[in-house]
Give the backbone structure.
Amino acid sequence: MKRVHLLAALLSAGICGSATAQTDRDLKNAAKTPDRILTYGMSYSHQRFSPLIQINRESVSRLAPAWSYSLDSDKGEESQPLVMNGVMYITSHDKTVALDAARGKELWKTMVVYPPETVKTVCCGIVNRGAALYEGKLFRTLLDGRVQALDAKTGKELWTVRSGDPKDGVAMTGAPLIANGVVIVGMAGAEFSVRGYIDGYDPATGKRLWRHYTIPRPGEPGANSWPDNAAKASGGSTWTTGSYDPDLDLVYWGTANPSPWNPLERKGDNLYTDSILALRPKTGEVVWYYQTSPNDPFDHDNVNALVLADITVGGQPRKVVMQAARNGFFYVLDRSNGRLLAANKYVKVTWADRVDMKTGRPVWSESTKQILDHVAHIQTWPFIAGGTNWFPMSFSPQTGLAYVNTFNIGAEYEPLPVDKLGDLAPGERSGGNTVKVSNIYAGGEPRGYLKAIDPLTGQAKWQTGFKSPNYSGTLVTAGGLVFTGELTGELVALDADTGKILWQFKTPSGIIGQPVSWEKDGEQYVTVTSGIGGVYIRQPDPNLRGVAHVGSLWTFKLGKQ
């Protein structure tokens, strides 16, 4: 009798049998099943749009905590939760946890063990951004360069494989992507002279099926865009998660900056850094690419979210991939062939005057031309962290707008003389130690804006300023709301049409996570991690004094009227 009661309880909680056996069809239809969050980005398109309307402009004032869960960590918490049949999965740098989604009760917890020296050798933050669900397994990456599969019902490790070695500068923080039955992962390390790559794995066994290096070697396509025919070329890491069009069977993945930051040692376009790649998930074959920042001197790595949408361009319906790039331009491309459809500034940009629509190349400003040719001191906008950074934007098919947290910061910049650099081996720092950089806070505040951007023009319908820039992802809903988090700890809800803040709740730490919304038993919930971290907090920002370094997970629902 006790076994029958236990089985009934497990089925009720949604953690038994086929409840966790996600199929390719489930993942393809993720955007149409708001009771579940099966993928990073909330769907293959990465629109981070929820069709739920229970929490809306009129009711959001009643939003209140349903539960919170301690992640027992003082590191940054950037992870996006997944939800499947009443179970929530969350990752941190040192653990994976399954919770009863409605109550926050822990169902299982699996700790991550890696050598303590790992945290001293990896770039750039002790974090993890999320997991993937498929066929009863939960997949994640580990900071020390491993990929892991857990049983989604029990948390038991099923397999773990090594992708890269932290001694060579490799780290892994991004969520895997399941595309056409393949577990696809990226890696970090461009600031440690790593040669970037993307891997594809068999979800059943962990066998590596393919590896695509983003940096060529002599004789390979693109090698002539590097000095010495790319014999020592490095960079191009792939540290965030791509999107997927199952109809075209194309995965879209961004690549990071070339190494070193200093451009004087690597004259040329430096393919395939700062690019959008379209790959076949079964083989890793690149079908097309588009490079946003050739010969990038400013660490404008191009790993920001790649959002898929169907929009009207020039009076014609087009299937596009769009990106608010770190370099300050908002790009829209035909996702079937990579043709550039729009490229416009969405923040202050001085490193380039414009993008040439015929060639797709940026037109360098006079100041950028100086530092590409010799040592010079310039001012440049945006600053090294970009117009925006890794934290994903959202897109509403209802308003046609992209909701992007942006920076209002520039930089004083000067490359070091070439004779002071020397050869850089894998694992050696090749970022800020090769240039001189200091930030410019023009006007002091606001240091950042949340903007509602027209993808085809780069113009903002509205912008809401924040004293410190938001380092959180955004979520937009059919209820007319945009959710995001502040570094000072507030989860905020804004009117998607006007940018007016309608509601806020202060969590114990700064929010650098990715809010999501989901439904259970007729109730809509919003969930986000809290736990300050990331690169920006190294800046001298007086607004962040006293913000506690403590990690937790928060879920909200509507209170009674």
Observations:
- The chain is about 5% helix and 35% strand.
- The two ends are 41 Å apart (CA to CA).
- Helices lie at 2-13, 24-28, 118-121, 366-373.
